[in-house]
Fold this protein.
Amino acid sequence: FQETGILTQENFESIRLHKEPMYIKEVLSLLQKTGMLTQQNFESVLCQDATDIERFLSSLHKVEILTQKNFEHVRSHPDLKNISHILKFIQKAEILTQENFEHVLSEQEITPLKLSLYYLQEAGMLTQENFEHVLSEQEITPIALSLRYFQEAGMLTQENFEHVLRHREPVCIVFSLRYFQETGILTQENFESIRLHEKPICIERTLSFLDKAGILTQENFEGVVSHTKLETVHRIQKLVQEAGLLTQQNFESIRLCP
């Protein structure tokens, strides 16, 4: 404060009474090192969560892109917490550049982006290529969910990630993964079965009926995925489920329809 000419009793009291004095100290140190410790910047950081501010400032500083303009862009972002986490993820992965920084700020689905990058980082898969894959998706939420389900099942690999990215019906795949995960039957073999099936939408809707009826088991899934007249089974199952009559016994009868 003394070096920058903003040492006042009021500023001293603001720091002394702050609930996170250690983080504020780090924030002020980073601003001072880059010649950005002004009264205006000091007041702006006091209005934010100090841990979030410190997280994004340190990330930008480590790759030498901590400028007043970038500081203001992040500080004024409506989702500062998630943005700060994203910057930390890509900084640790050594892919934080000015260009990637701007891509992150322009993204609308910030929470799904953060989750996607988190799971990729945990799996050691956060690369520039995968970062670009995620950003190029029209909807990031399905990608984030698929990564979560794969991670929870111990199946998060580059190959499975790319299978979802390239699938013609990625949303159906994600919903199917969710049904599998919730019922404890998410395996590589079951994933391959739905991924390679010629009618993934029909499979997903059939699984949803079984899930709602509480009868989604490995045996019932195998009975569905191998059925030669899946669309017929789906139509009958839909009518029975809507009438509240989808039981294991009735499902068996439907599955055995010629």
